[in-house]
Amino acid sequence: MARNTHPTEILEVNVQGLDDKGNGWAHYRHPSEKGPYGRKLKLTLPSTLPGEKVRVTVPNARGRKRATVHYDELLETSPDRIKVIDSPQDHPGGTPLEIMSYSAQLQLKENLVKHYLSEQGFDENLVEPIIGMEDPLHYRNKMEFTFGLNYALGMHKQGNFRQIVDLEESLIATPEMMAIKKIVSQWQRDWQLPHYNKEDRSGLLRHLMLRQSFATGELMVALFATRTKHDEAATDLKNRLLESFDQLASLLWIKNEDIADRTQADEVEVLHGRDYILDELYGYRYRIWFDTFFQPNPKQAHRMVDLALDLAQVERDQRVLDLFCGVGTFSLPFAGRCQELAGIEIVETSIESAKRNARDNGLDNTYFLARDARKGMVEVQEEWGQPDLLLLDPPRSGAGGKVMRRIGRLATDKVIYISCNPKTLAEDLVWLREFGYELQVAYPVDQFPMTMHVESVVLMEKKK
Predict the structure, then answer these.
(1) β partners of residue 56
(2) Rounded-to-integer distance, Cα 240 and Cα 357, Å
(3) Residues 49-61: tens digit of each pLDDT
(4) CA 253, CA 276: separation in Å to the nearest integer?
(5) Nearest to 264 by CA among 286, 228, 290, 227
(6) 411 vs 141, 316, 355, 390, 433, CA distance in Å?
(7) Which among 391, 297, 295 has a CA at the least distance from the CA of 337?
(8) What is the Cα–Cα distance from 241 to 382, expressed in whole angstroms?
(9) Among 165, 288, 420, 460, which one carries the catalytic annotation?
(10) Known catalytic membership, residue 325
(11) What does the alpha-carbon distance between residue 18 and residue 107 come to, in Å, rounded to a whole number?
(12) Are the beta carbons of 407 and 322 closer than 8 angstroms?
């Protein structure tokens, strides 16, 4: 036997919780001849739920501290389980909580928000019951698929980012998206177009991005490839899609030679229609390009705008500052109710879109600035004036201490924080507490059923 290798072992373990990706986890201690406690092994167990008991096979079990393994057999199941994955080792990622009842998903997410806020010393009783969906299926207006081996077109394998699992059905994509996905899959096979191989950077097709407006019905299909289009194949794809979808408003061939595995563009060719689609939210119309960040669940996004407006109680003579404003998702509804609104966003293309969206909707009381959030606040205050209300919707990493301290020094009466990560939300709110702000209420919102993500809309108010 080679040095530092150990036999494969079959273990029976109890699932103790879920990690931030929705995988079960368990700690197992090997028996020890030298004492009561042996070496500890942390196991990541996809497609399992807390309280379940599973049998797993672990290669080199005593020679490692952690391992990701798929269960061989479910020995005891959770009462929250509604689905058993027959072959968890071949299951695609993206919807790790599909095995859990929706009521249990909602309770899990509400408890996450309470946990992280109470961990930072906030009263968890200020967390309202989570706002779920009446129908938590087929809610996404955007999907990204990856081309893989043997003409697979789907999602990364759960627990293995290098392998692509072909997706035949989806709980979160719309039926139209899945029909387009099947057309593209057959087209790839018919033309024998190779997928992109990340190891040697060979091949052609990388990603398929689909967008669908729930309001206007318009569809966008964007193919990401390593080279410019193959004319005959591209024309054939256009004809196939137009035969099935009258609402196809944008068909794009996007050249991407970058080594990073993400949907970005070196060159964009419009094969049909225009390079954007039109969408609506809260009565406002938006232009959506392939790289535009727009709320992926329009029904729940509408509810979050409702909550933010209700908590803010913004008045006609007030000025509102919107940090991390993006293309103006929250900016436009607030601008329609206040005297003036300033939006700050570091991505210049998003700011240009926000300006255009404001013009398209007849709003002339907005001021958008492409700046870092902290520096932008200083500039806005100097040139535009003191805001009465501050609104922020930062990325998952949160706003950070420097930005939150700057917000504290602005000293607006109210701060509305829209969060997509309860952990960084709680960490950010601590800074405002030091400037005399108190948490008034937090509303969890389930914008991404079947996943571990949970949104929150929070009101912080300065003590009088």
Answers:
(1) 11
(2) 32
(3) 999 999 999 998 8
(4) 13
(5) 290
(6) 37, 20, 27, 9, 12
(7) 391
(8) 52
(9) 420
(10) no
(11) 13
(12) no
Evaluate whether 283 touches 329 at the Cβ level (below 8 Å). Answer: no
The per-residue b/e assignment along 162-183, b for 16 or more CB within 10 angstroms, e otherwise, is eebbbbeebebbbebbbebbeb
Contact call for residues 218 and 249 (beta carbons, < 8 A): yes
Return the structure tokens found at 378: 């200083």
pLDDT for res 4: 55
The pTM (predicted TM-score) of the whole model is 0.92
Which backbone phi and psi does 457 adopt, to 5 degrees?
A: -120, 120
Which amino acid makes up residue 103? S
Q: Are 322 and 392 in contact (CB under 8 A)?
A: yes
Angle between helices 102-119 and 422-433 (to 10 degrees): 30
Instruction: Answer whether residue 304 shows pLDDT above 90.
Output: yes
232 secondary structure, DSSP code = H
Q: Pull the structure tokens for residue 457.
A: 């809309």
Q: For tokens 């167990």, name the residue.
A: 45
What's the rounded Cα separation, in Å, for the pair 217 and 284?
15
